[in-house]
Design goal:
alpha/beta, Rossmann fold, 7% strand
């Protein structure tokens, strides 16, 4: 048995011994009981000494158990174990993070055309952990001694669990992406809140940060959410009465909420991108639209993924705006207009000012030539 595993087992055994000693000397209500052969009575002085000793033993037991769990967590990070044997390798996972309505569908479809590349569309694994960690229980972050499953004191352990969970589920669904020279492209814009956790749990994986002018994102989302649009119909296809959406009832409030959501999603993604030490690339939708082939070449070069030039050219052509059937394009459709700067025609002056005020940091950093 390796030395590391022996040490972990020893720490666990010590914790069990402490627990048994405590249980042998204390009843459920905390009053000292005689230990066989000791002659100890239930006198108050002896009870006080026993309780004090019990407290110290309990603390020692908790420390040892925690140390053992942390060691197991470290082993999960360094030697993930069975989840990688014959399965998808973390270094062959490519994440697309950012936000909805930034061109992630277009990008992932082009990537999926290439040999050896499989696309996992919207698993929402980032939302699963990101929402729980950053939103639902944010008041518990950094605190210890709680029962919170993602308590920071056990971070190494649960990061190892996230890693194993993702790799197991990915391999189970897409075994074809586990072979040599195969890649799994994870389109995860709506799970970007969990980007920092996922990239920390899978530091070998590769990352694409996809951004778009927040004004165009707001305009595109308003169009998608209006009554009669493709997204509205997809989510309200049961029954004949369909509710009015906020995009129709109060478009100004909708634009304000969307700008806040976009800033939040890109904030988490940028945090992950800045911290990631592995292969990564930042892509603006406007660059992809202006020169799809050149931008795709840059993406694969930065991610250090070999790609056949002929296949790349065919993939870009296959999914170009010009080759999308006309009946699938236009207002209310999945493919709306693909025109950077279209927000000037779609947003009111008040809506434009709202987005520019809320998303000012993003405009300053990524769109300095077109800031208000």
């Amino acid at each position: 048995m390796p030395v590391f595993e022996k040490r972990v087992d020893l720490e666990i055994v010590r914790g069990i011994k402490v627990f048994l000693k405590v249980e042998a000397g204390v009843t459920r209500d905390g009053v000292a009981e005689p230990v066989a052969g000791s002659g100890t009575s239930k006198a108050s002085g002896a009870s006080g000494r026993t309780n004090a000793r019990t407290g110290r033993l309990e603390q020692a037991g908790r420390r040892m158990a925690r140390k053992g769990r942390a060691a197991l967590g470290r082993r999960a990070r360094r030697r993930p174990g069975g989840e990688e044997v014959g399965g998808i390798r973390p270094e062959n996972v490519v994440w697309i993070f950012g936000s909805a309505r930034t061109g992630s569908t277009w990008l992932s479809r082009m990537m999926g055309e290439l040999r050896g590349q499989t696309v996992w569309r919207e698993p929402l694994v980032g939302a699963l952990f990101g929402n729980l960690y950053y939103d639902r229980a944010k008041h518990l972050i950094g605190k210890e001694g709680t029962h919170y499953i993602l308590e920071d004191g056990y971070r190494e352990s649960w990061l190892g669990s996230i890693r194993t969970f993702f790799l197991n589920e990915a391999t189970g669904r897409f075994p074809e992406a586990a072979g040599p020279g195969s890649y799994l492209v994870v389109k995860e814009p709506n799970g970007s809140s969990g980007a920092p956790l996922l990239m920390e749990a899978l530091p070998e994986s590769r990352m694409i940060l996809l951004i778009r002018d927040p004004r165009d994102v707001a305009a595109s989302t308003v169009d998608a959410k209006r009554k009669g649009s493709w997204q509205y119909e997809n989510r309200n296809n049961k029954g004949e009465r369909k509710p009015e959406t906020l995009a129709d009832a109060d478009p100004d409030a909708f634009v304000r909420n969307r700008a806040k959501s976009y800033l939040k999603a890109i904030g988490y993604t940028k945090q992950a991108y800045d911290a990631h030490k592995g292969r990564k690339v930042l892509v603006r939708y406007e660059e992809l639209r202006a020169d799809a082939l050149g931008t795709m070449r840059r993406i694969y070069s930065a991610l250090e993924i070999p790609v056949d030039e002929g296949e790349l050219i065919r993939a870009v052509k296959e999914h170009s705006w010009e080759n999308i059937p006309e009946e699938l394009k236009g207002e209310g459709k999945v493919f709306r207009k693909a025109t950077p700067g279209g927000w000037r025609e779609d947003l009111s002056a008040e809506q434009t000012r709202t987005v520019e005020r809320i998303a000012a940091p993003l405009l300053e950093e990524f769109y300095p030539d077109d800031k208000p």
